[in-house]
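Researcher: Let's do a round of design. I'm pasting the structure tokens now; please hold your answer until I've finished.
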């Protein structure tokens, strides 16, 4: 799992049935999601959101009982910014520069949804950088020092204090999204119900700064605590 192998490859290498590998990896992800502490962020923070395509998998009768259609092959998702209901759930991310990452799978990214998360996990008077999306327009009112980059005008980094360093950007969190997409790709489509556990496991690995076998001490420390 630290190497991000698929369940089928794990099953082959360990001589297991795929169903057994799926049960074990699912349990580990759930426990990581349940036991990982919430990280408080301070200093310089970048915030952004990304949208992934995730529908519903499973037995057709169970899916119908929940009042939803089954996941379709080659699910493309709706155009534009997504929501959980449109099978394009948003993942909201906050990263402290040279520090921890926080990611949340949300039903939407309205101000009323993200503001409680920000106020709970980001210290007041922190410097927050975002793009120009209007869900972030109230951050100054909430007690944060807020600056934006305007991607629609082709702006991706800006020097506000004249020291020659373009400190106003969201390149760090956008780099996380690139890593996350690569991390999810080998699993060939993840249902909405399981997506938060996959995201939580990715966040744990990112914050552990470890991959492969070097992840094992951190993983055992968390699971056996």
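Researcher: That's everything. Go ahead.
Model: Designed sequence:
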């Amino acid at each position: 799992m630290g190497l991000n192998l698929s369940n089928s490859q794990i099953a082959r290498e360990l001589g297991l049935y795929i169903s057994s590998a799926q049960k074990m990896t699912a349990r580990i992800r759930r426990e990581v999601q349940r036991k990982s502490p919430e990280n408080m962020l301070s200093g310089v923070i970048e915030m952004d959101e990304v949208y992934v395509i995730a529908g519903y998998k499973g037995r057709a009768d169970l899916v119908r009982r929940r009042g939803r259609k089954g996941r379709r092959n080659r699910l493309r998702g709706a155009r534009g910014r997504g929501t959980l209901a449109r099978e394009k759930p948003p993942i909201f991310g906050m990263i402290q520069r040279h520090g921890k990452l926080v990611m949340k799978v949300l039903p939407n990214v309205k101000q009323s949804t993200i503001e409680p998360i920000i106020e709970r996990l980001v210290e007041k008077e922190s410097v927050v950088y975002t793009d120009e999306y209007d869900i972030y327009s109230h951050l100054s009112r909430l007690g944060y020092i807020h600056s934006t980059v305007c991607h629609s005008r082709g702006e991706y980094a800006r020097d506000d204090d004249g020291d020659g360093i373009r400190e106003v950007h969201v390149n760090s969190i956008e780099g996380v999204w690139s890593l996350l997409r690569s991390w999810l790709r080998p699993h060939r489509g993840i249902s909405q119900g399981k997506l938060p556990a996959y995201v939580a496991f990715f966040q744990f690995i990112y914050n552990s700064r470890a991959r492969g076998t070097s992840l094992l001490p951190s993983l055992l420390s968390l699971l056996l605590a």
